[in-house]
Design goal:
This is Metalloregulator ArsR/SmtB family transcription factor. Keywords: DNA-binding, Transcription, Transcription regulation. InterPro entries: ArsR-like_HTH (IPR011991), HTH_ArsR_DNA-bd_dom (IPR001845), HTH_MetalResp_TranReg (IPR051081), WH-like_DNA-bd_sf (IPR036388), WH_DNA-bd_sf (IPR036390). The protein has about 110 residues and is of the alpha+beta class. The chain has six helices and three strands; from the N terminus they run H-H-E-H-H-E-E-H-H. The chain folds into two domains: about 70 residues, Arc Repressor Mutant, subunit A (Orthogonal Bundle); about 35 residues, no CATH class. Strands 1-3-2 form a three-stranded antiparallel beta sheet. Strand 2 and strand 3 form a beta hairpin. The longest helix has 19 residues. The radius of gyration is 17 Å and the shape is elongated. It starts with a helix and ends in a 7-residue tail after the last helix.
């Protein structure tokens, strides 16, 4: 897990990669559409996407001659949350409160998050 967390924090270290993640929050984008949002060259954006993919933060799929990128579920939130819970006691308390609320909602037959 330590290597995975290190990869994630390394991926987050560059502002371009953070912006790419923000751009992908609303859904999948083609590599060319991502590159068009930046002044950097296509190969530079491709390297940034490779770092994000290696960290497990984005996935790619091919659609004919296009490569489409999307976020990987909750990977970022879970990894950063796990790290924060080790260094920030408040995170541990908040996580336990969420678990109790989720369990109560599940036991009561309510939709989770209601």
């Amino acid at each position: 897990m330590a290597d995975s967390t290190s990869d994630i924090f390394s991926a987050l270290a560059h502002p371009t990669r953070r912006q790419i993640l923000q751009d992908l929050k609303d859904g999948e984008l083609a590599a060319g559409d991502i590159a068009a949002r930046f002044e950097a060259s296509g190969p530079t954006i491709s390297r940034h996407l490779s770092v994000l993919r290696a960290a497990g933060l984005v996935t790619e799929r091919r659609d004919a001659n296009r490569i489409l990128y999307s976020l990987v579920g909750d990977r970022l939130a879970l990894s950063v949350g796990d790290f924060l819970s080790t260094v920030c006691p408040e995170q541990i308390v908040l996580r336990e409160v969420r678990k109790v609320k989720t369990k109560r909602a599940g036991d009561a037959g309510e939709p989770i998050g209601a």
